[in-house]
Amino acid sequence: MNEIFTSLRRSPYQTFASLSVLFFTLLLSGLLFISLTFLYGVLNYVESRPRVIVYFDTSSSQDQIFKVKDLIEASGKSEKVTYISQQKAYDIYLEFTKDDPLLSEMTSPEILPPSLEVDAKDPLFLSEIAQLVASEEGVDEVQFQKDVVNNLLSLTNNVRKFTMIFFSYLAFMSIIVLSTTLSFKIALKKEEIGIMKLLGATDMYIRKPFILESVFLGILATALSNVFLITLLIFLNSTLGNFFADISKLDIKILNFNFTVFPFSVTFASVMLTVTAFFSLIITLISSFIATNRYLK
Amino acid sequence: MISFQKVSVSYTSSKNALSNISFDIEDNEFVYLVGESGAGKTTILKLLLNEVRPSEGTILFLDKEITHKKMKDSHTLRQSIGVVFQDFKILQDDTIFENVALAMKVKGFKDKDIKTEVEQALELTGITDKGLKFPQQLSAGELQRAAIARAIVGNRPIILADEPTGNLDPKTTWEIMNIFKKLEKTKTIIFTTHNADIVNSMKRRVILLKNGQLISDKKKGVYEL
Asked: Within 10 Å of residue A191's Cβ, how many Cβ atoms?
């Protein structure tokens, strides 16, 4: 450990450059990781709540609506069917517009359509339920989440591709900068390496201090970037709460392991720490191997 | 035992650095390699360190053939060799103790064993009180003593000394030679030099090289070019 500190102290600018590059790489990777996990969380949330909303004409009778409700329940494809009367729709509307009394005053229960909210047993049943009720008497419009899910899926896939490409670029740049700064240090120790080789040092023995130094910088950069990311998540927790409105919890599943993405949890922070530490380890190991290889040949 | 059997080395196609050289060196033997600059003395040492490969012939090192040893495996034979050079090759940022200890560290010795053996080596070479000093604080003679101490620690049966007295004044040269005399009972020493006085006074085996060829190999030889 003393040798690592001494070596870092002897080349402060190179140390700063390496640490900065690693820090920003891990910070950006962490931000991309958060974005991606949140998107997957939202996707998971939407997919786990397959819902069809059947809107009726304002003139529809309650009998017509309950006939459709019975039809849906009889199909065996629904988990739960909730009737939203015009009055209830109006109450919901008032709750949403409580900060804007003008909007509330302009609306009355009579102009809002009654509806049925159908929670499907499986996302695959969404379009079947929609087809089942579309031609029934009094049905005005059927909305379901197929489009929302498709859009979210497409967005998530694009973000994932972008993340992969951007991370590869960041990792590549970090490896170049780290291996170059490390090469300067190794060049200064060329004579020392020559002596060690004459004494019978193995390549690994010569590599070890440089690898340890890089890994130490990686650990430091991981710690710093995670402190920043976790602080950011804690700070944004309430803002995100407002943003996600009635979504109280976002979960995702990675390798049979379920964890909560939102609200902030220690598990999520631990996963983020593990992922960034892993990236950092890969980057620092590759960089130090590239740099030392040049001088061991 | 070290054995060179019809060994040739060519760096360029026109001239051989060594031509058809054969000799054997027994365990704990002291051998001078003498000859003019470019005669091939250092090439022999480089062959033993696996820094160069022979173009022809066979080399046995501690009874094992190393003729075609891969460069990346050089450490296995270098761990049996102590090296002493004219320019000392001492690490400037490390203390004398650390410099000597390095020869054991690269072989994976434990700290406790390193401390004991390095202290013994420093005592044998007469620099016990210099262990905590840095190379800049030592004279040339003391640095060469440190290099010898580094060459003998860590169970290294062979010492290759490439003109180790080349940078030293006559008095220090004899002090260094006295250390080598103490070591010859337990180590095989291959010693290259241009110093006729030390060769003639010690009366040890002398291998004379000229233009890459072995001219003479005498048991109790003298320096004659």
From this structure: 11
- For A255, the domain range is 2-46+150-296
Last residue of a domain, one of A129, A144, A159: A144
Residue B144 CB burial class (10 angstroms; 0-12, 13-18, ≥19): buried
Residue B79: list chain A partners with CB under 8 A.
199-200
B38-63, pLDDT tens digit by residue?
899 999 999 999 999 999 999 999 88
Give the tokens for residue B10: 């060519």
Look at residues A276, A280, A288 and name the one whose alpha carbon lies nearest to residue A212: A288
Are A218 and A243 in a shared domain? yes
Residues 36-95 of B with CB under 8 A from A: 49, 72, 74-81, 83, 89, 91, 93
Q: Is the same domain home to A225 and A262?
A: yes
pLDDT digits (tens, 9 = 90+) for A175-197: 999 999 888 888 888 888 999 99
ipTM confidence score: 0.90
Tell me the C-alpha distance between B206 and B195, whole Å. 12
Q: Tell me how far apart the alpha carbons of residues A175 and B103 are, in angstroms, rounded to a whole number.
A: 33
All residues of chain A having their beta carbon less than 8 Å from the beta carbon of residue B72 are 203
CA distance B173 to chain A (A): 23
Residues in A touching B75 (Cβ below 8 Å) = 197, 200-203
Q: How many angstroms separate the CA atoms of A130 and A248, rounded?
A: 27
DSSP E strand boundaries for B111-218: 158-162, 188-192, 205-210, 213-218
Backbone angles phi, psi at A121, to 5 degrees: -70, -25
Amino acid at A184: F
Do A139 and A76 sit in the same domain of this protein? yes
